[in-house]
Amino acid sequence: MNSRPGGRPYHHGSLPETLVTHAVALLDEAGAEAVAVREVARRAGVAPSAPFRHFPDRAALLAAVTEAVAVDFSERQLAAVTSAGALPFKALGTAFVDYALAHPHRFALVRGAVFGGARTPALEAGHRDFTGRVTELIVAAQERGELRRDDPELIRVAAQALVYGLSQMFVDGYLDASRAEALIDRVLDLFGLGVLGEACRE
Amino acid sequence: MNSRPGGRPYHHGSLPETLVTHAVALLDEAGAEAVAVREVARRAGVAPSAPFRHFPDRAALLAAVTEAVAVDFSERQLAAVTSAGALPFKALGTAFVDYALAHPHRFALVRGAVFGGARTPALEAGHRDFTGRVTELIVAAQERGELRRDDPELIRVAAQALVYGLSQMFVDGYLDASRAEALIDRVLDLFGLGVLGEACRE
DNA sequence: CGGTGATGTGATCGCCGATCACATCAACCC
DNA sequence: GGGTTGATGTGATCGGCGATCACATCACCG
């Protein structure tokens, strides 16, 4: 019946991945609310009940989508940091806002999942890894005298809240997204005075 | 049929208000997602189709809920400001976070609606009024030399993003809500150094 | 007192999430 | 190689939801 010249291992091939792929596309198109199991199955060309063989319910499918998106998200941010040698924090914040603007629905999903209470083990691990690296950056900057020698976790949380709040305001259309970069610069300058270390004060 | 000793004007009384009341209760209990038109009608004791006489669709009902909640939200913040003579900004931020923690689902709803693009005229007016008052506070503080003489709108946006991001992190359980006040103090102190005016610098 | 329009009802449609018995096919064992 | 077994996909089905429609009911107005 099915033309399956390739050596697909099972009936369909690897249905779970296919489902997640289509679900991400659907998420990008119309938001998490629009990710219906039946529609995903339809796009994947399988029966409406097929996805339930791999995901116990819709929430589990969304969780898989979230994991995939979160991995992509954190990878991009870390890439931005490593590629921009100096000013890693501005690069990090800009990458965060840029990703949120490019994929607003993905941002909404990871927001609720990463910051939310019900974290998957994989999400939890990825999150700990990411925050750990950011804290390392902060400590390093403190040792170079570029940042105030305050509790690094406090600085991290505050910076995270700021970037996060700005991102949401951009995504929601509350701020002009086309001027994102300039506004980020100004806000960071404004608040940066409170966080800079001795070496950077005039 | 119905025992209506009170002089209720219509068949039911004023059904729209009743519906919104039950919808808000449902929102508080289980989030916006759980606000089903049928369930609201059930609680109000009317037929499933009755709400559609007053709200064209579910989105309109949710919009009415949002308006009611947004009014309550901004009233509480303004009350906090006027009751706390000095340090109005800390009072404002604390009131914001407190409300978000007390009613997380309401916060999620107004977030998407107030910051979001599709604002009801009533919401838009209330929002303009509110941000106007905050900006006045900022300008007044600048004239007293308590705040940096920077663009007041910039300061407002930055402060809003910070408080907003912190609120979301508390609501999502990412930060320990029981230590909200202390953490707000520390973050404001940390960033405040960048925003304070000449009169407050040591 | 009769009409008229606003309000509430019940039936109905299509979509969704979820479950079940059943079909199909790969893999494994003898 | 043939049979068994378990994983995977199907179709039917259930209940819930949003939305619409014809119909019933009731307040209000002339």
Automatic annotation (TrEMBL), chains A, B:
PANTHER family: HTH-TYPE TRANSCRIPTIONAL REGULATOR BETI, HTH-TYPE TRANSCRIPTIONAL REGULATOR RUTR. It comes from the Bacteria. InterPro entries: Homeodomain-like_sf, HTH-type_TetR-like_transc_reg, HTH_TetR, MT1864/Rv1816-like_C, Tet_transcr_reg_TetR-rel_C_sf. This is TetR/AcrR family transcriptional regulator. Residues 36-55 bind DNA. Residues 13-73 form the HTH tetR-type domain. PROSITE patterns: HTH_TETR_2. Keywords: DNA-binding, Transcription, Transcription regulation.
